[in-house]
């Protein structure tokens, strides 16, 4: 098949335009706020707000100012945000955090987890997956309980 001169460039340009046009509103907002938040890792909608996981912490979009507001507390880099049963959970470089939605205050879960790779809700329980193994969050004490068979020394 013969293409006119410049066709590949035009096709690439068209592909970029189509890709940009199909981005969701959330992705478009996040891309404009990257300078305020640092590098953005993910964004999720929670109760009508957009929550952003970024290299400078966790943020939520303030509905009045339309700008990101930082979650209170030292979370360091936040890689993902997981809404579970009306709470926000943060998977961060220095551990797992739960966020009080009313005060937007982060609470660090006790335990030497280090980097949290994922937070998984399972049948009403929260599981924290880390490089050292896996933990389950005790719902009463909010403490991390190691999962014996998966724990790595």
Query: Can you tell me the CATH superfamily?
Result: YVTN repeat-like/Quinoprotein amine dehydrogenase
Shape: globular
Low-pLDDT runs of 5+ residues are 6-23
Mean pLDDT reading:
77
For the secondary structure, the number of strands is 12
Number of helices: 2
Number of domains: 1
Q: How would a crystallographer describe the biggest sheet?
A: 4 strands, antiparallel
Please report the distance between the alpha carbons of the first and last residues. 59 Å
- What Rg do the Cα atoms give? 19 Å
CATH topology: Methylamine Dehydrogenase, Chain H
CATH class: Mainly Beta
N-to-C series of helices and strands: HHEEEEEEEEEEEE
Q: Report the sheet-strand fraction.
A: 35-45%
Helix content: 10-25%
Question: Explain this structure to me?
Answer:
The protein contains two helices and twelve strands, in the order ααββββββββββββ. A four-stranded antiparallel β-sheet has the order 1-2-3-4, with helices on one face. The protein has a four-stranded antiparallel β-sheet with strand order 5-6-7-8, with no helix packed on it. Mean pLDDT is 77; it is low at 6-23. By secondary structure, it is of the alpha+beta class. It is globular and about 45 Å long. The protein has helices at residues 7-22, 25-37, and strands at residues 40-46, 49-54, 57-61, 68-70, 78-84, 87-92, 95-100, 105-108, 116-122, 125-130, 133-137, 144-146. The protein has a single domain, classed as YVTN repeat-like/Quinoprotein amine dehydrogenase (Methylamine Dehydrogenase, Chain H, 7 Propeller). Helix content is 19%, strand content 42%.
